[in-house]
Amino acid sequence: MKNGLVISDSGPIFSLALIDRLDILDALFNKVCIPPAVWEEITYDVTKSDYQLISAFFRNRIQPIKGFNELLFIMDSGESESVMLYKEIYADFLLIDDKKARSIAENLGVNCIGVIGLLSVARNRGFIKELKPLFETFLQNKRFYSVELLNAILSTFDEDRISIPTK
């Protein structure tokens, strides 16, 4: 069963594209949308290796916000437009990883999920066989996720922990 409508911020999009799993969004949700500011963020650098993948996936999923973006004073444009769009179209989830922005969104009553939670749901539903290789790819490519959190998730699925090399 799919989970309604999700709005995504740019950070999770970059993470999912890095592991070539944007398809998880369509597998888990009936509809995926992004606001214009997120589109600008994810398509800004045409030289990025995942530009074609990202732009093809999101090109027809842009939904403009209608109201004044009063959150721009406390969040960046992509995050604030994502929260505004969530509220305007009564989305079910906001996919967001930034800790400060997520905290603000949750205080505004937004139902948030991050990439790690999303991948955990995908693993539970059989769309992913192993999380550890994906988590290792994040860390190797400087996607900033807590190793403690990643290992806690891995342990719930009886997967081997990620070891951090000591210097």
Please give a handful of descriptors for the protein shown.
4 strands, 167 residues, 7% strand, alpha/beta, Rossmann fold, 4-stranded parallel beta sheet, 9 helices
Could you explain how this protein is built, in words?
It is built from 9 helices and 4 strands; from the N terminus they run βααβαααβαβααα. The protein has 167 residues and is an alpha/beta fold. It has a domain at 5-117: Rossmann fold (3-Layer(aba) Sandwich). Strands 2-1-3-4 form a 4-stranded parallel sheet. Strand 3 (93-95), helix 6 (99-107) and strand 4 form a beta-alpha-beta unit. Helix 3 (36-43) runs antiparallel to helix 5 (77-88).
Give the % helix: 40-55%
* C-alpha termini separation: 46 Å
* Helix and strand run: EHHEHHHEHEHHH
User: Tell me, what is the CATH class of the domain at 5-117?
Assistant: Alpha Beta
List the SSEs and their pairings.
Blueprint: E1 5-8, H1 10-18, H2 23-28, E2 31-33, H3 36-43, H4 51-58, H5 77-88, E3 93-95, H6 99-107, E4 112-113, H7 115-124, H8 132-140, H9 147-156
Parallel strand pairs: 1-2, 1-3, 3-4
What does this entry show, briefly?
The chain is of the alpha/beta class. It has helices spanning about 10-20, 25-30, 35-45, 50-60, 75-90, 100-105, 115-125, 130-140, 145-155; strands at about 5-10, 30-35, 95, 110-115.
